Amino acid sequence: MTIAVIDYGMGNLHSVAKALEHVTHENVIVTRDARRIRGATRLVLPGQGAIRDCMGELEKTGLRGLVEELLARQAKPLLGICVGQQMLLDHSEENGGIGCLGFLRGEVRKFPTDMRDDRGNRLKVPHMGWNLVHQHHDHPLWAGIDQDEHFYFVHSYYVDAADDATVFGTTDYGRVSAHVAIGRDATFAVQFHPEKSSRAGLKLLENFVQWTP
């Protein structure tokens, strides 16, 4: 049993791998070797930085076609993290507009520049720090995690999924309700960083390791 963290040059790879090692006895590898990725029992698609760079590196490493094939087949569980979530959508507004993998319908949108809370106080962009996640639909990865639990975020863009059935968690920031947990079939993806989210984040990773779609 092997969990492969897909290494295309972008993302907090080793922190994610260490967090997975903390919750499982399964073998965890960080790799860009197509053979080892195909042979893994579970996959993690991380991402950090600008979407243009992430999509570009996925192309340069020759892994885009493999990731698209694995998403189409849905033969094994896959967890997307941060930009690894955003990449699953049709399109992102970042960098003047970037086409993404198109696994799930929807857009990645930029937070408005003049973000304010209910009291009129200005909110910072990027959205950085702890915020609660409301479980919009039940999912096995929410097992043992309280409703409106807090997770750790760092992002200036957010997912706006087109199909409500694919939305499993939301976070309100100002007047924006961001779709921070999305999925379909054997794929689940989150905007927050479970590897930085203390007990709740480790529990989500543990659930992923035990998940049989």
UniProtKB/TrEMBL annotation:
- Cellular compartments annotated: Cytoplasm
Q: What is its main location?
A: cytoplasm
Which UniProt keywords are present, listed alphabetically?
Answer: Amino-acid biosynthesis, Cytoplasm, Glutamine amidotransferase, Histidine biosynthesis, Hydrolase, Lyase
Tell me the GO BP annotations in alphabetical order. L-histidine biosynthetic process
Q: In which pathway does it act?
A: Amino-acid biosynthesis; L-histidine biosynthesis; L-histidine from 5-phospho-alpha-D-ribose 1-diphosphate: step 5/9
Q: Which residues form the Glutamine amidotransferase domain?
A: 5-209
Among InterPro entries, the record links this protein to: Class_I_gatase-like (IPR029062), GATASE (IPR017926), Imidazole-glycPsynth_HisH (IPR010139)
Name the reaction it catalyses.
5-[(5-phospho-1-deoxy-D-ribulos-1-ylimino)methylamino]-1-(5-phospho-beta-D-ribosyl)imidazole-4-carboxamide + L-glutamine = D-erythro-1-(imidazol-4-yl)glycerol 3-phosphate + 5-amino-1-(5-phospho-beta-D-ribosyl)imidazole-4-carboxamide + L-glutamate + H(+); L-glutamine + H2O = L-glutamate + NH4(+)
Catalytic residues in the record: 82 (nucleophile), 193, 195
Q: Mention any Pfam family matching this sequence.
A: GATase
The secretion signal range is: none
List the EC numbers from the record: 4.3.2.10, 3.5.1.2
Q: What SUPFAM superfamilies does the annotation carry?
A: Class I glutamine amidotransferase-like
Q: Which PROSITE patterns match?
A: GATASE_TYPE_1
**Entry's Gene Ontology molecular function annotations:** glutaminase activity; imidazoleglycerol-phosphate synthase activity; lyase activity
One GO term describing the cellular component: cytoplasm
Described by its record, this protein's role is as follows: IGPS catalyzes the conversion of PRFAR and glutamine to IGP, AICAR and glutamate. The HisH subunit catalyzes the hydrolysis of glutamine to glutamate and ammonia as part of the synthesis of IGP and AICAR. The resulting ammonia molecule is channeled to the active site of HisF.
Q: How does it assemble?
A: Heterodimer of HisH and HisF.
Put simply, this protein is called Imidazole glycerol phosphate synthase subunit HisH
Query: What lineage is this protein's organism placed in?
Result: Bacteria, Pseudomonadati, Pseudomonadota, Gammaproteobacteria, Oceanospirillales
- Which gene holds the coding sequence for this protein? hisH
